[in-house]
Design brief:
By secondary structure, this protein is of the alpha/beta class. It contains twelve helices and 24 strands. The strands form six sheets. It has a four-stranded mixed beta sheet with strand order 22-23-1-24. Strands 2-15-17-16 form a four-stranded mixed beta sheet. A hairpin with a 2-residue loop joins strand 16 and strand 17. The termini are close together. It folds into two domains: about 220 residues, UDP-n-acetylglucosamine1-carboxyvinyl-transferase, Chain (Alpha-beta prism), CATH 3.65.10.10; about 200 residues, UDP-n-acetylglucosamine1-carboxyvinyl-transferase, Chain (Alpha-beta prism), CATH 3.65.10. Bound molecules: shikimate-3-phosphate. The site of shikimate-3-phosphate has 11 residues, from helix 5. The site of shikimate-3-phosphate (S3P) has 11 residues, from helix 5.
């Protein structure tokens, strides 16, 4: 499916952003491992999360969709499923579930994924889990077969910062009484730590060391999931680049380990405000409002990247409309996302008439305040590349086409309707 985005009048109104993807995976997995019932409100019903729901059901949990975005999970002692666990396009599903199974004696399963996921590195989880005593057959790529075992402890240095690796270790550690610590030179998103606390397993964080507490038996609970800041990024960036726009999103997760984009946009001169900050299932959420603004270029260093790792394509769009040279450092991890995102962003920007270059792991974008557009952008089947360039097309002088839009459903089903609801022309 090809989509085309065109410039029209200003965007205005409130966007309904679906639940956070990271938290949705975690709620299903922890619910399936916990004793008793877990109720999840605001679950993201995207292809990635549904892959996790199917997997935990195949491990023996009872998973029911009560109504849209309202799910019930009855935890169970996991057993070996008959078929491989297909994680689709989702790195989070694969890496977290590999960790969870690694610590479960008697459970064996083969993990598979689509073409993109099967090309992504898995040694980053296999190596630390192996040091805990895990038995995993395979090398750096899916398919991999995990035979759950009684594990020992670990002290792992999480470099480069990866919340998926940290979470895999914490989930594996639930099956052992031994000390489990993850040292984070640069912190990664802490949704696993927060949600484990909700399920009765406190995780301490002191001076950059994350330690799994005790008891480690999880107890089912009620989780309400906030709106995904990584999805909100697209309509918010669209509003900042389309003249005359003002867009708001309610109940967005503003965990400081996720708000790098918002901070960077503010530093670029965006008129962005957060209000009604509140706690929901241990996470800080807020209402976010943004107005069209003239942007200056940004300077982002490597330590700022983990807090906006999924927002770089959206940030690149903002930089394309800024006046001057933006420099974003520390993007090596973008090479191993759903696509080579660094390469895809540069190629898409150049196709749209914006000078950009990937210089080692740095991205330089030479904004001129306006963007020509008038191109068909190759997404490489990457949902965030598709959404980013449709966003760019809403403010470019000429329409922008993306070659493949189906994958948007992996993270943001309803993206087109949500964008149209504030006046975007996407056909
Ligand atoms: C995620 C962590 C990040 C992020 C991904 C979701 C998570 O990946 O890019 O979309 O839910 O833990 P890394 O752990 O590879 O940084």
């Amino acid at each position: 499916m090809r989509l085309v985005a065109r410039r029209r009048g200003p965007l205005g109104g409130e966007v309904a952003i679906p639940g956070d993807k990271s938290c949705s995976h975690r709620a299903l997995i922890l619910g399936a491992m916990a004793k008793g019932e877990t109720r999840i409100s605001g679950l993201l019903e995207s292809d990635d999360v549904l892959a996790t729901a199917r997997a935990v059901a195949a491990f023996g949990a009872k998973v029911d969709r009560l109504e849209p975005n309202e799910w019930r999970v009855e935890g169970a002692r996991w057993t070996s499923p008959v078929d491989p666990a297909d994680c689709g396009n989702s790195g989070t599903a694969a890496r977290l579930l590999i960790g969870a199974v690694a610590g479960m004696e008697g459970v064996s399963v083969t993990f598979t994924g689509d073409g993109s996921l099967s090309a992504r590195p898995m040694r980053r989880v296999i190596a630390p889990l192996g040091r805990m005593g895990a038995w995993i057959e395979g090398d750096d790529r899916l398919p991999l077969t995990v035979h759950g075992a009684r594990l020992g402890g670990i002290e792992h240095v999480n470099d480069p910062a990866s919340a998926q690796v940290k979470s895999a270790i914490l989930l594996a550690g639930l099956g052992t009484g031994a000390p489990v610590a993850v040292i984070e030179p640069v912190p990664s998103r802490d949704h696993s730590e927060i949600m484990l606390g909700q399920f009765g397993c406190e995780v301490s964080v002191q001076e950059g060391v994350v330690r799994l507490g005790k008891p480690r038996g999880l107890i089912g609970c009620n989780i309400t999931i906030g709106a995904d800041p990584s999805s909100a990024a697209f309509p918010l960036v669209a509003a900042v680049v389309v003249p005359g726009s003002e867009v708001a999103a309610r109940g967005v997760i503003v965990n400081p380990l996720r708000t790098g984009l918002y901070e960077t946009l503010e530093a670029m001169g965006a008129d962005l405000s957060l209000s009604q900050e509140r706690l929901q299932s241990g996470e800080i959420i807020a209402d976010v409002r943004i107005r069209h603004s003239l942007l200056s270029p940004c300077q982002v260093n490597a330590s700022q990247i983990p807090a906006m790792i999924d927002e770089i394509p959206a940030l690149a769009v903002a930089c394309a409309f800024a006046d001057g040279e933006s420099l974003i450092e520390g993007l090596a991890e973008l090479r191993v996302k759903e696509s080579d995102r660094l390469g895809a962003v540069v190629a898409g920007l150049i196709a749209c008439g914006v000078a950009a270059v990937a210089d080692g792991d740095c991205l330089r974008i030479f904004g001129r305040g306006a963007v020509r557009g008038g191109a068909s952008v190759v997404t490489h089947g990457d949902h965030r590349i598709a959404m980013a360039f449709l966003t760019l097309g809403l403010a470019a002088e000429q329409p922008v086409e993306v070659d493949q839009a189906e994958m948007i459903a992996t993270s943001f089903p309803g993206f087109i309707e949500v964008m149209r609801s504030v006046g975007a022309d996407i056909q």
